[in-house]
């Protein structure tokens, strides 16, 4: 009887121990699963952060590459513009040299004798300098009327500055006059002949009652320029 009771007590103790072991194992398994889940979550978050950083770095690299490409294009463009400016300056110098050879000095000539006028009020007159169309009086003779001359005078385009600026009046001395500094503010490509001429006519208040024919230069082209380029004719 005593042995039977001891045996039952032993079996109860054994069952209790197994239950405790099972509970412990279950707890360990639960903790392990929680730890694994936490680690997986951290690993996923790390991967996402790493991918986001890689995308950011790649975006920066792409942006820098585009900026470098744009800088290269800008440098090429500036170099091209520099060459164009140099060519434009050389062309303008050449054109002005040709113009200078055409009109080094204004001479006020007598129509009858073709000699420089040395007497009379026209001897010390003042002349206005204007711009003419390049196709004005392309004939060999110099016969024209005042209205014909004035109809070929070129004014500035609408909204533009005066076409010709600078010393727009010439004072005759001993029948001779010298052009001063003159600046064109627009090119000549917009008129039919694509060229200009410089013309001169007696200023108001001088030589009244005397018929004096106007003067003109040879035709020349004026091209666009990127910077102000003033020229003087002596």
From TrEMBL:
It holds the Pfam family Calmodulin_bind. GO terms for biological process: regulation of salicylic acid biosynthetic process. The keyword Coiled coil applies. One of its GO terms (molecular function) is sequence-specific DNA binding. Residues 14-81 form a coiled coil. InterPro entries: Calmodulin_bind_N (IPR046831), CBP60 (IPR012416). GO terms for cellular component: nucleus. It comes from the Eukaryota. This is Calmodulin binding protein-like N-terminal domain-containing protein. It comes from Clitoria ternatea (Butterfly pea).
